[in-house]
């Protein structure tokens, strides 16, 4: 993936690609670091699935916003496309292929609630609006 992204960056000089992680206050730290980049060109940021959520309705007082939500709250335009690996095991040597699921597709809400929201102490969403923009779903090849 790193090799692919390096080639992509060389072909698209307007695209900024950054990797970031932190030990403490991860989301605040990562958001703070990302806010320092130039805002006149797109930035592709690879984050773990939960960090891509632009809105979470926590059921616990200790819940804090993830990177995407922090950036949105600070006025940045964020497009979020988490990946979803379907749990089934692929047959011998059978690879996986990706499929895009737009946030407007009813399947996207199911994926959001059953994959990401089920991992945290938060309310299930009634809509994907303002939460994600779509999913990249990885499935076994037919």
Short description:
The chain is of the alpha/beta class and 142 residues long.
Walk me through what this model shows.
- With 142 residues, the protein is an alpha/beta fold.
- Helix content is 27%, strand content 16%.
- It contains 4 helices and 5 strands, in the order αβαβαββαβ.
- The strands form 2 sheets. A 3-stranded mixed β-sheet has the order 3-5-4, with helices on one face. Strands 1-2 form a two-stranded parallel ribbon.
- Helix 2 crosses helix 3.
- The model has no long low-confidence stretch (mean pLDDT 88).
What's the β-strand tally? Answer: 5
Give the overall pLDDT as a whole number: 88
- Give the CA-based shape: globular
User: Structural class, from secondary structure content?
Assistant: alpha/beta
- Sheet of most strands: 3 strands, mixed
Could you name the ranges where pLDDT drops below 50 across 5 or more consecutive residues?
none
Strand order of the largest sheet: 3-5-4
How big is the Rg?
16 Å
- The percent range for helix content is 25-40%
Helix/strand order, N-terminal first: HEHEHEEHE
- Total number of helices: 4
| Terminal residue distance | 24 Å
């Amino acid at each position: 993936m790193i090799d692919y992204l390096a080639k992509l960056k060389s072909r698209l000089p307007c695209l900024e690609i950054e990797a970031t992680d932190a030990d403490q206050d991860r989301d605040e730290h990562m958001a703070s670091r990302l806010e320092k980049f130039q805002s006149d060109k797109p930035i592709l940021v690879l984050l773990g699935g939960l960090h891509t959520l632009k809105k979470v309705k926590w059921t616990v007082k200790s819940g804090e916003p993830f990177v995407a939500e922090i950036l949105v709250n600070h006025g940045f335009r964020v497009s979020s496309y988490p990946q979803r690996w379907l749990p089934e095991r692929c047959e011998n040597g059978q690879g996986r292929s990706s499929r895009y699921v737009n946030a407007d597709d009813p399947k996207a809400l199911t994926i959001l609630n059953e994959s990401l929201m089920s991992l945290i102490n938060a309310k299930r969403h009634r809509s994907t609006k303002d939460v994600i923009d779509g999913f990249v779903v990885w499935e076994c090849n037919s």
